[in-house]
Amino acid sequence: MKTTRNMMRATMAAAALVSIVLALSGSLQAAAVIYEPFDDSESNLNGNAPGTGLAGTWSGSSYTVKSPGLSFGSLPTSGNYVLNSGGALRSASVTLGPDLAGAGLLDHGAELWFSFLAEIQTAATNTAYEFSLGTDPPSFFSGMPAGGQGIGVNLWRGTGVEAATWDNTRTVGSRQTLAASSTALIVGKIKWGADASAADTIEVYLPGTDLVLPVTPASTKSAVLNQSLFDTLGFDGKSSPYDGAARIDEIRFGATYDDVIGVAGGIAVGETFGDWGLEWSNDPTEQLNLVKTATDLLPFDKEITVTGGLESIIIDETVLNASGTAWTDYHLILGHDLGGQFEPIDGLDGLAFLSASSTAFDGAIQVSPGEFLFHGGLLAPGEEATFRLELTMPQGDQVTFTLRQIPSVPEPATMGLLTLAAAGLGGYVRRRRKA
Questions:
Q1: What pLDDT digit, counting tens, does each position of 310-355 carry?
Q2: Phi-psi region of 160 (alpha: psi -120 to 50; beta: other; left: phi over 0)
Q3: Distance of CA 66 to CAs 41, 50, 243, 365, Å?
Q4: Exposed/middle/buried for residue 362 (C-beta within 10 Å: 0-12, 13-18, 19+)
Q5: Residue that terminates a domain, selected from 260, 283, 300
Q6: DSSP state of 362
């Protein structure tokens, strides 16, 4: 029995180590791989030092750097913005650093997100603006050089936004209206094809100032591209009049939507069902700390939301038995919805327990990917138990699930034996004292 228990603890310790490594790697993903706020204050973009994840210097002699930078809702911003002030059909570009490819975001089957702020002035009567990730910077009329490829966004006449791909020439998806003289947050989601022959798809979104991602993209375009050759971030614009017609700022590339709107990964507790008391905190990013007061034996549900693309999380919780009854078992079940609508998970979507341990119960049985049963102990009224739970997360930008907890009490016969044992022990102690 002792050997079995030691083996269980060793296995759980190993699983805990794996979970912690995964949690840390997930938290590292929860940040933009490329971030360009145009912090370099030199008035001409040409020759300026680029932001995070970019290499060399910017080229683009017709682009002016001005302050303050653009803003949009609660989007974190800094630095300045740039505009084409020198003439029509002028491009700006910078070389990618190794980080984007190093993070696997250009791999077949990977998902890459980007965002930038754009503002088209009302005075511009004939404006077009292109933004691309590719082999070369885009050019509005001539596209890219022979053999050049890219993927990105086209802004047209200050009234519309289109998903775009380049294979020498540019092709676009449907156009979505874009208000002039107001700052827009342009968000792109690129899904690279599963192999070199599969189509790559870009979806373009226009979130509001609440930064909630729309359900439906504004524009979509697919093409077969060779993203392994992509080494340039560029944009190009034409307008009449030129000065101040199109402004761009806050360029971000990352693995998730949260990455490109400046939101760090985190965990938060939402709605609950049940009468238990609950306090929670989120520190560090990938760990949720819970303090509960269990006032009854009924199921207690709480919704938990994980953001920032975390691959795994840790939940540390302390539970006070304030139910007035001793507990022999404790159930933890993952699912969705609350109360009577609660449904356990099937374990097929990537949400599952990785490991679990407790100070109050010697045994922990993983009944299914989404259920743990603690047993082999007795938690008396007024006593506290601590639990450490480690969960793997489904892939996605925001994951919401329910953690249900149910204490169990001894069967009547078992309770009678426990009562007799306690009474016998008390009599033995009294006799020893008298002696």
A1: 778 899 999 999 999 999 999 999 999 999 999 998 776 789 999 9
A2: beta
A3: 8, 15, 12, 61
A4: middle
A5: 260
A6: S
Closest C-alpha to 404, from 362, 345, 355:
345
d(CA 217, CA 56): 34
Phi, psi of 104 (to 5 degrees): 80, 15
Q: Distance between CA 391 and CA 287 in Å, rounded?
A: 10
One-letter amino acid identity for 1?
A: M
pLDDT of 16 over the 60 cut: no
Question: Nearest 5°: CA angle at 316, between 312 and 317?
Answer: 140
* Distance separating alpha carbons of residues 315 and 354, to the nearest angstrom: 11
| pLDDT at position 13 over 70 | no
| pLDDT tens-place string over residues 166-210 | 898 888 888 887 766 678 899 999 999 999 999 999 999 999 988
Do 153 and 294 have their domain in common? no
Distance in angstroms between the alpha carbons of the first and the last residue of the chain: 37
Q: Give the burial class of 149: count Cβ atoms within 10 A of its Cβ; 0-12 exposed, 13-18 middle, 19 or more buried.
A: buried
Last residue of a domain, one of 245, 260, 275: 260
Question: Hey, which residues does 83 pair with through a beta bridge?
Answer: 64, 247
How far is 24 from 285, CA to CA, in rounded Å? Answer: 9
Neighbouring CB atoms inside 10 A of 432's CB total 8
Tokens of 250: 């806050």
Residue 390 in this model has a pLDDT that exceeds 50: yes
The domain of 47 spans: 31-260
State how far Cα 147 lies from the chain centre.
Answer: 35
- Paired tokens of 274: 């049940």
Strands (E), 26-89: 34-36, 54-59, 63-66, 81-84
Closest CA to 130 of 95, 98, 99, 88: 88
CATH of the domain at 178: 2.60.120.200
Same domain, 151 and 284: no
Amino acid identity, position 370: G
Residues 51 and 139 in one domain: yes
Beta strand 312-321 with 287-294: parallel, antiparallel or unpaired? Answer: parallel
My answer on whether 127 and 19 are in the same domain is no
Domains of the chain: total: 2
Is pTM beyond 0.90? Reply is: no
